[in-house]
Amino acid sequence: MDTFLRDINTLIYFKYILSLSLQGIKITQGSNEDELLLDTPFVKGKVTKYKNNVIEEEVISKDKEEVLFYIHFQMANMKHALDLLKEMIDCIYESYNEPIGKILLCCSGGMTTTLYAHNMQKLAKMEHLNYSIDACGFNLLYEIGEDYDVILLAPQVAYLLAEAKSHLSVKVEAIPTKYFARNDYHHALMYAIKLNEGEK
Protein backbone atom coordinates (compact mmCIF):
# COMPACT_ATOMS: atom_id res chain seq x y z
CA MET A 1 0.00 0.00 0.00
CA ASP A 2 1.45 3.38 -0.96
CA THR A 3 1.80 6.27 1.48
CA PHE A 4 -1.23 8.15 0.14
CA LEU A 5 -3.53 5.13 0.67
CA ARG A 6 -2.06 4.53 4.14
CA ASP A 7 -2.82 8.15 5.04
CA ILE A 8 -6.41 7.86 3.78
CA ASN A 9 -7.02 4.51 5.50
CA THR A 10 -5.59 5.77 8.79
CA LEU A 11 -7.80 8.87 8.64
CA ILE A 12 -10.88 6.73 7.90
CA TYR A 13 -9.90 4.30 10.69
CA PHE A 14 -9.72 7.08 13.29
CA LYS A 15 -13.01 8.62 12.12
CA TYR A 16 -14.62 5.17 12.27
CA ILE A 17 -13.46 4.59 15.86
CA LEU A 18 -14.68 8.04 16.90
CA SER A 19 -18.10 7.31 15.36
CA LEU A 20 -18.57 4.02 17.24
CA SER A 21 -21.34 3.79 19.82
CA LEU A 22 -20.27 1.04 22.21
CA GLN A 23 -22.20 0.23 25.37
CA GLY A 24 -20.21 1.19 28.46
CA ILE A 25 -17.30 2.72 26.51
CA LYS A 26 -16.98 6.49 26.12
CA ILE A 27 -14.87 7.40 23.07
CA THR A 28 -13.44 10.92 22.80
CA GLN A 29 -10.75 12.84 20.94
CA GLY A 30 -7.52 12.99 22.93
CA SER A 31 -5.25 15.98 23.37
CA ASN A 32 -4.73 16.14 19.59
CA GLU A 33 -6.20 14.66 16.41
CA ASP A 34 -3.73 11.76 16.53
CA GLU A 35 -5.12 10.37 19.79
CA LEU A 36 -8.43 8.74 20.74
CA LEU A 37 -9.39 7.85 24.32
CA LEU A 38 -11.70 4.99 25.32
CA ASP A 39 -12.96 5.23 28.89
CA THR A 40 -14.85 2.74 31.08
CA PRO A 41 -15.29 2.39 34.85
CA PHE A 42 -12.52 -0.24 35.00
CA VAL A 43 -10.04 0.46 32.20
CA LYS A 44 -8.79 3.24 29.97
CA GLY A 45 -7.87 2.69 26.36
CA LYS A 46 -5.92 4.78 23.90
CA VAL A 47 -5.38 4.68 20.14
CA THR A 48 -2.49 6.85 18.95
CA LYS A 49 -1.20 7.59 15.45
CA TYR A 50 2.52 8.17 14.89
CA LYS A 51 4.46 9.09 11.77
CA ASN A 52 4.43 6.68 8.83
CA ASN A 53 0.89 5.66 9.88
CA VAL A 54 2.08 3.55 12.78
CA ILE A 55 -0.84 3.00 15.16
CA GLU A 56 -0.53 2.10 18.83
CA GLU A 57 -3.43 0.61 20.79
CA GLU A 58 -3.37 0.00 24.53
CA VAL A 59 -5.70 -0.83 27.39
CA ILE A 60 -4.67 -0.14 31.00
CA SER A 61 -6.53 -1.11 34.18
CA LYS A 62 -7.49 1.87 36.31
CA ASP A 63 -6.97 0.24 39.69
CA LYS A 64 -3.50 -1.26 39.23
CA GLU A 65 -2.29 0.68 36.15
CA GLU A 66 -1.59 -2.72 34.61
CA VAL A 67 -1.23 -3.01 30.82
CA LEU A 68 -3.92 -5.45 29.67
CA PHE A 69 -3.50 -4.99 25.92
CA TYR A 70 -0.77 -3.39 23.83
CA ILE A 71 -0.05 -3.55 20.13
CA HIS A 72 1.45 -1.27 17.52
CA PHE A 73 1.26 -1.78 13.79
CA GLN A 74 1.59 0.08 10.53
CA MET A 75 -1.63 0.54 8.59
CA ALA A 76 -1.45 -2.19 5.94
CA ASN A 77 -5.13 -2.66 5.15
CA MET A 78 -8.41 -1.79 6.79
CA LYS A 79 -9.47 -5.38 7.54
CA HIS A 80 -6.28 -6.03 9.50
CA ALA A 81 -6.69 -2.78 11.46
CA LEU A 82 -10.36 -3.55 12.24
CA ASP A 83 -9.44 -7.07 13.42
CA LEU A 84 -6.92 -5.59 15.85
CA LEU A 85 -9.47 -3.01 17.02
CA LYS A 86 -11.96 -5.81 17.70
CA GLU A 87 -9.33 -7.58 19.83
CA MET A 88 -8.81 -4.37 21.80
CA ILE A 89 -12.55 -3.87 22.36
CA ASP A 90 -12.92 -7.53 23.41
CA CYS A 91 -10.17 -6.96 25.98
CA ILE A 92 -12.03 -3.92 27.33
CA TYR A 93 -15.26 -5.90 27.71
CA GLU A 94 -13.42 -8.81 29.33
CA SER A 95 -12.31 -6.39 32.07
CA TYR A 96 -15.98 -6.15 33.09
CA ASN A 97 -15.82 -9.83 34.06
CA GLU A 98 -12.91 -9.33 36.42
CA PRO A 99 -14.16 -9.06 39.99
CA ILE A 100 -13.62 -5.62 41.50
CA GLY A 101 -13.38 -7.21 44.92
CA LYS A 102 -12.68 -10.61 46.43
CA ILE A 103 -14.48 -11.50 49.66
CA LEU A 104 -13.64 -14.48 51.86
CA LEU A 105 -15.98 -15.80 54.55
CA CYS A 106 -14.45 -17.88 57.30
CA CYS A 107 -15.91 -20.11 60.01
CA SER A 108 -14.50 -22.95 62.09
CA GLY A 109 -14.69 -25.66 59.41
CA GLY A 110 -15.91 -23.79 56.34
CA MET A 111 -19.19 -25.66 55.92
CA THR A 112 -21.56 -22.99 57.24
CA THR A 113 -19.84 -20.18 55.39
CA THR A 114 -19.67 -22.18 52.13
CA LEU A 115 -23.47 -22.14 51.89
CA TYR A 116 -23.58 -18.52 53.05
CA ALA A 117 -20.94 -17.49 50.47
CA HIS A 118 -22.83 -19.34 47.73
CA ASN A 119 -26.00 -17.39 48.50
CA MET A 120 -24.12 -14.09 48.72
CA GLN A 121 -22.52 -14.82 45.33
CA LYS A 122 -25.95 -15.55 43.80
CA LEU A 123 -27.25 -12.26 45.19
CA ALA A 124 -24.21 -10.34 43.90
CA LYS A 125 -24.77 -11.80 40.44
CA MET A 126 -28.50 -10.94 40.51
CA GLU A 127 -27.69 -7.36 41.50
CA HIS A 128 -24.88 -7.12 38.89
CA LEU A 129 -22.25 -6.56 41.57
CA ASN A 130 -18.92 -7.80 40.28
CA TYR A 131 -17.59 -9.51 43.40
CA SER A 132 -16.06 -12.92 43.95
CA ILE A 133 -17.14 -14.57 47.23
CA ASP A 134 -15.52 -17.70 48.68
CA ALA A 135 -15.41 -19.52 52.00
CA CYS A 136 -12.89 -21.46 54.06
CA GLY A 137 -12.28 -22.95 57.47
CA PHE A 138 -10.16 -21.00 59.95
CA ASN A 139 -7.33 -23.53 59.53
CA LEU A 140 -6.80 -22.25 55.94
CA LEU A 141 -7.27 -18.56 56.63
CA TYR A 142 -3.60 -17.57 56.96
CA GLU A 143 -2.69 -19.68 53.94
CA ILE A 144 -5.12 -18.05 51.49
CA GLY A 145 -6.31 -14.87 53.21
CA GLU A 146 -3.85 -12.49 51.55
CA ASP A 147 -5.41 -13.30 48.16
CA TYR A 148 -8.62 -11.48 49.18
CA ASP A 149 -9.63 -7.86 49.66
CA VAL A 150 -12.00 -8.43 52.58
CA ILE A 151 -12.29 -11.30 55.05
CA LEU A 152 -15.42 -11.74 57.16
CA LEU A 153 -15.34 -14.07 60.15
CA ALA A 154 -18.55 -15.88 61.04
CA PRO A 155 -19.88 -15.24 64.57
CA GLN A 156 -18.63 -18.70 65.68
CA VAL A 157 -15.01 -17.57 65.21
CA ALA A 158 -15.43 -13.83 65.82
CA TYR A 159 -13.46 -14.22 69.07
CA LEU A 160 -10.39 -14.80 66.83
CA LEU A 161 -10.78 -11.42 65.11
CA ALA A 162 -7.84 -9.72 66.88
CA GLU A 163 -5.57 -12.67 66.09
CA ALA A 164 -6.61 -12.69 62.42
CA LYS A 165 -6.05 -8.93 62.11
CA SER A 166 -2.56 -9.27 63.55
CA HIS A 167 -1.61 -11.99 61.02
CA LEU A 168 -3.17 -10.54 57.86
CA SER A 169 -2.64 -7.25 56.03
CA VAL A 170 -6.08 -7.26 54.35
CA LYS A 171 -9.33 -5.97 55.87
CA VAL A 172 -10.68 -8.46 58.42
CA GLU A 173 -13.95 -8.00 60.32
CA ALA A 174 -16.68 -10.17 61.80
CA ILE A 175 -20.01 -10.63 60.03
CA PRO A 176 -22.58 -8.98 62.29
CA THR A 177 -24.53 -11.77 64.01
CA LYS A 178 -27.83 -10.10 63.09
CA TYR A 179 -27.00 -10.64 59.39
CA PHE A 180 -25.49 -14.10 59.73
CA ALA A 181 -28.09 -15.69 62.02
CA ARG A 182 -30.97 -14.39 59.88
CA ASN A 183 -29.39 -15.38 56.56
CA ASP A 184 -29.51 -11.71 55.60
CA TYR A 185 -27.25 -12.05 52.57
CA HIS A 186 -28.07 -8.59 51.26
CA HIS A 187 -26.86 -6.70 54.34
CA ALA A 188 -23.85 -8.99 54.72
CA LEU A 189 -22.89 -8.29 51.10
CA MET A 190 -23.38 -4.53 51.49
CA TYR A 191 -21.27 -4.65 54.67
CA ALA A 192 -18.43 -6.42 52.81
CA ILE A 193 -18.63 -4.00 49.88
CA LYS A 194 -18.45 -0.98 52.20
CA LEU A 195 -15.38 -2.48 53.85
CA ASN A 196 -13.81 -3.04 50.43
CA GLU A 197 -14.51 0.57 49.51
CA GLY A 198 -12.87 1.82 52.69
CA GLU A 199 -15.97 2.45 54.80
CA LYS A 200 -16.90 0.78 58.05
UniProtKB/TrEMBL annotation:
<dbReference type="InterPro" id="IPR003501">
    <property type="entry name" value="PTS_EIIB_2/3"/>
</dbReference>
<keyword id="KW-0597">Phosphoprotein</keyword>
<dbReference type="InterPro" id="IPR036095">
    <property type="entry name" value="PTS_EIIB-like_sf"/>
</dbReference>
<feature type="modified residue" description="Phosphocysteine; by EIIA">
    <location>
        <position position="107"/>
    </location>
</feature>
<dbReference type="InterPro" id="IPR051819">
    <property type="entry name" value="PTS_sugar-specific_EIIB"/>
</dbReference>
<keyword id="KW-0813">Transport</keyword>
<feature type="domain" description="PTS EIIB type-3">
    <location>
        <begin position="100"/>
        <end position="200"/>
    </location>
</feature>
<dbReference type="InterPro" id="IPR013012">
    <property type="entry name" value="PTS_EIIB_3"/>
</dbReference>
<protein>
    <recommendedName>
        <fullName>PTS EIIB type-3 domain-containing protein</fullName>
    </recommendedName>
</protein>
<dbReference type="GO" id="GO:0016301">
    <property type="term" value="F:kinase activity"/>
</dbReference>
<dbReference type="Pfam" id="PF02302">
    <property type="entry name" value="PTS_IIB"/>
</dbReference>
<keyword id="KW-0762">Sugar transport</keyword>
<keyword id="KW-0418">Kinase</keyword>
<keyword id="KW-0808">Transferase</keyword>
<keyword id="KW-0598">Phosphotransferase system</keyword>
<dbReference type="GO" id="GO:0009401">
    <property type="term" value="P:phosphoenolpyruvate-dependent sugar phosphotransferase system"/>
</dbReference>
<dbReference type="GO" id="GO:0008982">
    <property type="term" value="F:protein-N(PI)-phosphohistidine-sugar phosphotransferase activity"/>
</dbReference>
